Amino acid sequence: MTLVLILLLLIAGIVFSTTRLKLHPFLALLGAALLAGFAYQMPLLEIVKTISTGFGGILGYIGIVIVLGTIIGVILERSGAAISMAETVIRLLGERFPTLTLSIIGYLVSIPVFCDSGYVILNALKNALAARMKVSVVAMSVALATGLYATHTFVPPTPGPIAAAGNLGLESKLGLVIGVGLFVAMVTALAGWLWANRFLKIDDRDLLEKQPDAMPAEELDFAALKQRYGTLPSATRAFAPIFLPIALICLGSIAAFPGKPLGEGLLFSALSFLGQPVAALLVGLAIACTLLKGADKRQQFHDQVASGIASAAPILLITGAGGAFGAVLKVTPLGDYLGQTLSGLGIGLFMPFLVAAALKTAQGSSTVALVTTSAMVAPLLTPLGLDTEMGRVLTVMAIGAGAMTVSHANDSFFWVVTQFSRMTVATAYRAQTMATLVQGITGMVTVWLLSLVLL
């Protein structure tokens, strides 16, 4: 119990220091990581080492993606491509349900792409749509984030769900896992969309970080905004820097499927290389360069790269600090304690859900929660009454629902959404963290209802 109390105090300290004391989240997270090391009685020489490793580890995964995605976003914004994308999406899906439009886009994109990467790539589109439709940036941000989050935790080939399926002996039944996962993810994405609509008509000025030198995009007249860019690029040229990288990542994931559906020759090697997020975004950046206008394109490119790096720097620091906090928690006895405590309750599908939710909330990573919980419950399937093909599939879904409950200060995705959306930390807890709670509970209820029919 003491272990859990320490965690709750640390989280409360982060919230209080960032909201009331106005401490920068980077320092608040580093301080929490350091205090966690002392509170959980880690060896003194291991505390700083673990913090440094966690900081570097998360940036090794997402850091370059954030920088490249930010640079592409700057180019898309300054070339008018984001405006073209917004108009195209509106023309196809209409203007009645702006948040639903982004939820659908996020739901599709995050099947092959990590939700962090997907949010970075689609951030410029989200902002342009918010300006075009004159709706809250907070609502649009939550709609996009929850759409991405839904398929990220339920649908292979995202690494977390595919690893959980493997741990539960479903390597040859991935098609069934994907089919059930798409349905459960759809329900949770809809739950996230409904929560996002709570913020649709709010005044963003009280909920976003102040930027006195820039007018919020949603306050600009869209016609005047278009005129600032002159001739806009075509829809094909505007979408290419975003959707070609996504297509490459999809193909890379397909090439890596068990059974190697695309063979193991040159095509496999090429797609495996280009399907990595960093390589795919470099291709996207090269295509984005064709959007540069005017005579001195080299200088434009230099200036926009510099601007992108400057914009990415605080996001990188905060994301890395969140990774450091999560790394410290991972090496404490907290995860084992929660898993052992909850595993003995004998409550069927709710047991893996609660274990995954506890691990997710404690250490921040949905993927870690999925992999760890699936390995932990695999030998318990028979006593839980889940040792059938569909029982195993629904166990993966229950773990996925737990692995999205909840995203908060120790989750890199929380800080990616917060910083790219310019939400205050207090707003992010009200909007994004609560949305993931709603999604997780909705997902588990959906899985439970399916079990009444399928088991």
Any overview of this molecule?
Helices cover 75% and strands 0% of the residues. The two termini are 35 Å apart. The chain has helices spanning 2-19, 25-39, 44-79, 81-93, 98-109, 115-133, 137-154, 159-167, 174-196, 222-227, 235-255, 266-274, 277-288, 297-330, 334-343, 350-363, 366-377, 381-384, 389-402, 412-421, 425-454.
Shape category? globular
Return Rg in Å: 22 Å
Q: What structural class do helix, strand and pairing data support? A: mainly alpha
Largest sheet geometry = none
Strand content range: under 5%
Number of helices: 21
Order of secondary-structure elements: HHHHHHHHHHHHHHHHHHHHH
Q: Tally of extended strands? A: 0
Rounded average pLDDT: 83
Helix content: over 70%
Core attributes:
455 residues; mainly alpha
Sequence-ordered SSE layout with sheet pairings:
Elements: H1 2-19, H2 25-39, H3 44-79, H4 81-93, H5 98-109, H6 115-133, H7 137-154, H8 159-167, H9 174-196, H10 222-227, H11 235-255, H12 266-274, H13 277-288, H14 297-330, H15 334-343, H16 350-363, H17 366-377, H18 381-384, H19 389-402, H20 412-421, H21 425-454
Helix pairs in contact: 1-2, 2-3, 2-14, 3-6, 3-13, 3-14, 4-6, 4-11, 5-6, 5-7, 5-9, 6-7, 6-20, 7-9, 7-21, 8-17, 8-19, 9-19, 9-21, 11-12, 11-13, 14-20, 15-16, 16-17, 16-19, 17-19, 19-21
Short description:
With 455 residues, the chain is mainly α.
